[in-house]
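Researcher: Here's the sequence for the chain we discussed earlier.
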Amino acid sequence: MDIKEIQNLIKFVAKSGASEVKLEMDDIKITIKTAADSETTIVHQVPAASVPQVVAPAPAPVTPEPAAPAAPDPASDDSKYITIKSPIIGTFYRKPSPDKPLFVEVGQTIAEGDVLCIIEAMKLFNEIESEVSGKIVKILVDDASPVEFDQPLFLVDPS
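Model: Thanks. This is the structure I predict for it:
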């Protein structure tokens, strides 16, 4: 296991929200402990080879900026809409191929099971189907852009 793989493991554990992860392989033992303010990784190698201790930098504290008070606008109230999120990490496509029409557009009515987009992951093209019926209010991702797991893709008005 090289340092890049260890760094990726640290990032994965930090995003997962786990407080402690232990990984033991034949020649390496890794313990990753996360706390609210810091993240520590300890790497032990069973043979007395020189494997340095890796300590991940503590994430910088994020201070939210105070929002400017605005008049409530009923058109921008997204709480009544259903958010359709990405089930996987990959590249978001709005069309099945460059010469084909878009799967859905803003204002279009959809039903359960309708294909909304494709997310390409590791050379596999996964059709993302709607789990709700309603009208597309907003498309939150640009075509051919990368998406993360659980990233909002569409807003749907179920009424």
